[in-house]
Amino acid sequence: MTKPETARPNGLGERPDLREAWERVVETARRTVADGLVVGTSGNVSARVGDIVLVTPSGVPYDRLGPGDAVGVDLDGRQVIGELAPTSELPMHLAIYRDTDAAAVVHTHAVHATAVSTLVDEVPAIHYMTCALGGPVRVAGYALYGTDELARNMLDALRDRTGCLLRNHGTVVYGATLDQAYDRTAQLEWMCRVWLTAAAVPGYTPALLSPEELRSAADKISGYGQPR
Hints:
Elements: H1 16-34, E1 44-49, E2 52-55, E3 72-74, E4 79-81, H2 90-99, E5 104-108, H3 111-117, E6 139-140, H4 148-157, E7 163-166, E8 170-175, H5 178-199, H6 211-221
Parallel strand pairs: 6-7
Antiparallel strand pairs: 1-2, 1-5, 2-3, 3-4, 5-8, 7-8
Helix pairs in contact: 2-4, 3-5
Protein name: Class II aldolase/adducin family protein
Domain Class II aldolase/adducin N-terminal: 23-196
Keywords: Lyase, Metal-binding
């Protein structure tokens, strides 16, 4: 009879808020794979709970992650939960949490968005959902992954936005919840796919939305959904 594996002590302790947040981080990371936004262990996901940032570990397949694999750091990057090393992109996640009111961050290597990052400095306003990310999405200058330089470039591109592309790399999007960050990520990838598809038609140039049209859409979207 095989002895059941005992989860390593991971510092979640009696904190149901941390346990729930870690479950949501893992669930979201697995969703990025299932939806084709990342391949293998590329990309990463995090959530902030107070002064603790729970983040996916480096190089571990998401379908293998369990409660005993939780990784948490403080806002200075000191590891306070778990034994696995945090994602190499930790500087990007921490930069967002220090600079914004974000509670969740999703980073992917989505195919269409990454392709667009090699072509333009700003995602063309092909659809009114552009305003869901604060306006036309900028492309951050290239820097080696996992570096403070990349984190700085990313923050420049995120100014007044909730998402950006990373040149020759992928996407970074944040939100008030993991669901919101993920939805914005999926919308960004979809818009990039639409623009690439339209721009590929010989002899035609895609029509783009004007700043005034985007402002009108932003006003309308602010009231979208069921009344509260």
